[in-house]
Amino acid sequence: MASLARLRASQRIFRAPFVRAIQTSADTTTLREDASTSSPFMVKLHEDSFQAFNCEPPSLDVQVSKDELITMYRQMSTMRRMEQAAGALYQAKLVRGFCHLAIGQEAVSVGIHNGLTPDDYVITSYRCHPFAVLRGGTIKGVIGELLGREVGMSHGKGGSMHIFTPTFFGGNGIVGAQVPLGAGLAFAQKYSEHPRCTFALYGDGAANQGQVFEAFNMAKLWDLPCVFVCENNKYGMGTSAERSSANTEYFKRGDYIPGLQVNGMDIVAAKQAVEYARKWTVEDKKGPLLLEFVTYRYGGHSMSDPGTTYRTREEVQRMRSTQDPIHGLMKYIEEWGLATEQELKQIDKDAKAEIDAAVEEAKLSPEPDEKELWTSIYYAGTEPPFMRGREREEVHHY
């Protein structure tokens, strides 16, 4: 009994302090005026959509349009279909290596993309497939890369995470390594006097990395146009935030860098926060900002993780059925009279057909030729006359 009492006392000592939870429902935005199918109209976000640290939160009054909402619905639906296809290909043993899916977190990637300009930069960690497509890549290119085929965005040589576009600097497999890289991209933007910003994403599991705080320091020291984005899906690799972090309010961990916690399940709130952050760094030139999107992944950390050893199936099902970002946006569109249920189902059907076609095209693509072993090592035009392989006799001449 005495040992039990000591255990309970220790639990009371180390239990995380009560933190007011941010609103994470996907469908709490309301109309401020009659919706219009032909012109923009005003909606109001839930009062707990944002929590701010050393800055004023974004306005809860947001202007939206039918075209914008339909576009984001189509993008979220397509990205989920793509990730589901990637999962099926992995289970069929056609995808080898690592595969981390972003099913459930679509409002973050789509919200970021639609809140930025085409010239802004994005760099992220494992869950990079949606960003690769949204920032200038193709679905066939992503699926092809996962399958290790020539049609892949890196010609089948990189696989998941190693996919890039002129404004998307890939996913990174080293935990937290993309954060200082993102700060470096922002440094280049400021040095070149380009009116752009960099969004450097990391997860709650990487939030305790030393290099993350080193990047924070340099970014604030030089007031770089960098937005550090914590995708808090609450479990890191497989440990709840409360068990891994003394301070789970990640938006407050930038010290001198102001922060904003965002409902990452409502696409309207996500996009509003991104536009606010871009204005902060680029137009107002206030230096870096820390965004924390409170979101949720339905699957495990990776395809090799069942995702149910550290949380219950009931919890996952509850999130799917009550806080899904795609269903939330669907509800807005239907209730505001912007499109019918049948029209939205057709969008879903079209997305599935697009994904199915991309998968079949990627499957037909051959594996990369052996000559590809010698490409993409040096910047084009700077290659040496020859390069030695693994053995002294193995030499490739350019």
UniProtKB/TrEMBL annotation:
The main enzyme category here is oxidoreductase
In this chain the Dehydrogenase E1 component domain maps to 74-369
Q: Which UniProt keywords apply?
A: Oxidoreductase, Pyruvate, Thiamine pyrophosphate
Q: Which domain of life is it from?
A: Eukaryota
This enzyme's EC code(s):
1.2.4.1
Q: Which GO terms describe its molecular function?
A: pyruvate dehydrogenase (acetyl-transferring) activity
Q: Which SUPFAM superfamilies match?
A: Thiamin diphosphate-binding fold (THDP-binding)
Reaction(s) catalysed by this chain, per the record, are: N(6)-[(R)-lipoyl]-L-lysyl-[protein] + pyruvate + H(+) = N(6)-[(R)-S(8)-acetyldihydrolipoyl]-L-lysyl-[protein] + CO2
Q: Which segments does the entry list as coiled coil?
A: none
One GO biological-process annotation of the entry reads: pyruvate decarboxylation to acetyl-CoA
Pfam families cross-referenced by the UniProt entry? E1_dh
Keyword Oxidoreductase set for record? yes
Known CDD domains for this protein?
TPP_E1_PDC_ADC_BCADC
Cofactor(s) demanded: thiamine diphosphate
Q: Does the keyword Oxidoreductase apply?
A: yes
What job does the chain carry out? The pyruvate dehydrogenase complex catalyzes the overall conversion of pyruvate to acetyl-CoA and CO(2).
Name by which UniProt lists this protein: Pyruvate dehydrogenase E1 component subunit alpha
This protein's species is: Armillaria gallica (Bulbous honey fungus)
* Lineage of the species this protein comes from: Eukaryota, Fungi, Dikarya, Basidiomycota, Agaricomycotina
